[in-house]
Amino acid sequence: MSNEVPVLKLKRGEDRRIRAGHPWVFSNEVDNDATPLAKIAPGAIVRVVSDRDQFLGHAYVNPHALICARIVGRDAEQGLDRALIAHRLSVALALRERLSREPYYRLVFGESDGLPGLVLDRYGDIIVGQIATRGMEALRTEVEEAVRTVLAPKGLFWKNDTGARDLEQLEPDAHVAFGDVPEELTVVEGALRFVTPLRTGQKTGWFYDQTANRARLTRYLWAGARVLDVCSYVGAWAITALAHGARSARCIDSSGAALAYASRNAAANGLELETLEANAFDAMKALHEQGEQYDVVILDPPAFIKRKKDIPQGQAAYRKLNQLALNLLAREGLLVSCSCSYHLSAEDLSAAIQGAARHTGRFVQILEAAGQSPDHPVHPAIPETRYLKAYFCRVTRE
Ligand code: SAH
After folding, report:
1. Which of 182, 203, 221 delimits the end of a domain?
2. 189 - beta bridge partners?
3. 304 in ligand 1 pocket by Cβ < 6 Å?
4. Residue 393 Cα, ligand 1 centroid: separation in angstroms?
5. CATH (domain of 20)
6. How many angstroms separate the CA atoms of 292 and 13, rounded?
7. Which CATH number do you get for residue 275?
8. Which protein residue's CA is at the shortest distance from atom 1 of ligand 1?
């Protein structure tokens, strides 16, 4: 049937990783004599075959990217078309509906949901999407149709401002795909409601990857705790803590706009918090010098390591941040230390925490090592899909 679809042929042996379940084809794996990449249009759909012409998958191509093809389907009879995309979306939705009572979650997490290069976050009847690849960009109309058919939301907004687009030579772009999209999004997490900015917000507006960890926090928290939420964004962690018995909470963030939302969100939930607009490193140092102490410190910084070459500097930054946090903890405290840098391994983060402990004369016990929420499933063949680390630690004195 799909014989008219162009072919992308791999070199001998390069089918192994693909057969093991990995969906990416790197440009040096292509048999350029048989199927010259340069002759394939950006965003084209191809049949990927082995050196012996065995069908491996239907993929989309970007000849200018290092990852030159990403496989979307492995059924030879089912082409890469709107039906396949709608099917993937329905399967993704079925998981989220099982995981959550309320329609607030990451609906599609790229490769992990069989839709490489696509993220869709759900805010009730508003969907916010991000496209990271040229191939997915070429399928945008099909995705929009699938979203309409499967979800029929009030509106879909493309917030295509991820740094990953550079690698695919895609410009940033933000626009309403269809429907009515408000300036502010509403999020329901447990019994709490939040508002968060869309266009000026971080990522799609919310960090659903930490939802499960915020629920975990409530298990370790104790009544009357004084909480410091570092890199708080719109206050999700601090407000969760306050709603579960914390006596006070202070949010530190370099964005005044994010902190204004944190205060608003607290008030809307009948709670109150303090904010500090500052660089986290400077602010924590100053709080320590003022003799401030907290029972709980949450560290949820942005990714300090974006590229492999940033690893040594990044490791030092994580260690420094954890050291500053330990200095602010009371005699017995709880440290929640997170990293969303894929290039910082779980072992590296625990080593940073332990290094900080030695430096400050503290004794740390890891109570739980957690990752991202299950609406960000891990693809077992793709290590990059496992990126978030969260350690829940008891901290006492040596
Ligand atoms: N904890 C948040 C997500 C944090 S995102 C949540 O669960 O929703 C990272 C936040 O760190 C952003 O709000 C950003 O404004 C802030 N940030 C980035 N660099 C910072 C710095 N050096 N000091 C303080 N805040 C910083």
Report:
1. 182
2. 192
3. no
4. 21
5. 2.30.130.10
6. 60
7. 3.40.50.150
8. 232
pTM: 0.97
Question: Which residues constitute the domain of residue 363?
Answer: 188-397
CB atoms < 10 A from the CB of 308, how many? 9
Is there a single domain that holds both residue 49 and residue 104?
no
Q: What is the mean pLDDT of the chain?
A: 97
Atom of ligand 1 nearest to the CA of 231: 11
Contacts of 244 (CB under 8 A, 6+ apart): 217, 218, 221
Span 117-132, pLDDT tens digits: 999 999 999 999 999 9
- Band (pLDDT 50/70/90 cuts) for residue 1 is very low
Q: Mean pLDDT, to the nearest integer, of 277-299?
A: 98
Both 305 and 277 in one domain: the answer is yes
Predicted confidence (pLDDT) at residue 320 exceeds the cutoff of 90: yes
**CA 231–ligand 1 middle distance (angstroms):** 3
pLDDT digit string, tens, across residues 358-398: 999 999 999 999 999 999 999 999 999 999 999 999 999 98
Q: Does residue 262 share a domain with residue 362?
A: yes
Reported as a pLDDT band with limits 50, 70 and 90, residue 215 is very high
Q: What is the CATH number of the domain that holds 118?
A: 3.30.750.80
Query: How do strand 67-73 and strand 55-61 relate by DSSP bridges?
Result: antiparallel
Task: Kindly give the distance from the C-alpha atom of residue 126 to the centroid of ligand 1, in angstroms, as a whole number.
Answer: 24
Nearest by Cα to 58 from 44, 48, 69, 67? 48
Residues 193 and 177 in one domain: no
Q: Are residues 163 and 293 in the same domain?
A: no
Residue 211, token pair as written in the block: 């939802």
Q: What pLDDT sits at residue 31?
A: 98
- Assess whether 347 and 235 both reside in one domain: yes
13 and 152 in a single domain? The answer is no
Locate the ligand 1 atom nearest the alpha carbon of residue 279 and give its number: 23
Please tell me whether residues 243 and 323 are part of one structural domain: yes
Mutate to test the pocket of ligand 1, among 202, 204, 229, 231 (most ligand atoms within 8 A of CB): 231
* Domain endpoint, select from 15, 50, 73: 73
Domain count, the chain: 3
Determine whether the shortest distance from the Cβ of 254 to ligand 1 is under 6 A: yes
> Buried b / exposed e across 329-342, counting CB within 10 Å, b at 16+?
beeebbbbbbbbbb
Distance CA 159, CA 174 (A): 5
Question: What is the set of active-site residues?
Answer: 340
What amino acid occupies position 392? F
